[in-house]
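User: Second chain of the day. Same drill as before.
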Amino acid sequence: MAQISPYLQDIDKALRRLELMRLDGCRILITGAMGLIGGCLVDLLMRSGTDCKVYAFGRDEERARKRFESYWNCHNFHFIKGDVTVPLNSEVCFDYIIHAASNASPNFFKEKPVEVIKSNILGTQQLIEYGLSHNMKRMLYVSSGEIYGEGTGRAFVETDSGYVDCAIPRSCYPSSKRAAETLCVSYAAEYGADVVIARPCHTYGPYFTESDNRVYAQFIRNVLNGEDIVLKSSGDQFRSWIYVVDCVSAILMILLKGAGGQAYNVADENSNVTIRELAKIIARVGHRQLKFDIDIQSGNTTPISKAVFNIEKLRNLGWNSSFCIKEGLEHTIETLR
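Assistant: Same format as last time:
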């Protein structure tokens, strides 16, 4: 019997703690299925043993065939090719919609800020309206912890709202995520749409895209290529992190147990580390060195920025993390190898 990857073993472990019986016989649409979170949602649901039908939505069928090769011919797996910014060309009545389509890579914010805004705002509008006209039970919008902007340094709770400079292209992501959340609760208030919101912190795991230039992806590529990790700053930014399997288990718990119209932080409070500490863990796991190349005179240092999350609201639904950051990163790297 072929040995399964650590990532798939982690999914099976998470499934033992989830109660997904309500999904039996349901049709579930997952947008952004080729992304880190969307892909893990597909993997978990396809391994859940429930009699649900999974509809993976994405723009690249060739990539989808490779990513979901083991499910492609399963009777309960379906791929829908499309773009969330245009009306969905389907007549399927999805019981649940999980909208996870949004590019979260900083290089995309720089090169395609308009497209980032469209996927968050137009995509959310198209999906809620489709759901309302096709007897949808509930939609979950995957937002982001970036909606909090600059905080005070204490852990963010769901009612916080810090500063975002809306007059720079980089704000395409947090500003459109904020607007999409408001759109969700407005559809709930005016049209009765049942929508819940998940706000993940920085999420890591295998199967990130080739174009993903977030720091964890760059560090992992370094060690997989046999390279040392070189930090260009002191790496003092202090952030909440979460392994993608934990993130997805939290999203499904919010989908099934969360209060309508509410937002929930998704984070692992035991995985709050600086960028420098993250780099050290990845270097250690990958048997490489961590080096620094900081030019103080050029101003290439980054001020300390703290962005951590209070998850009491999520914990009250019955959720707890299963994987510490070292274990999650070890399993990510082992799986990619």
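The chain has eleven helices and 13 strands.

User: Great, on to the next one.
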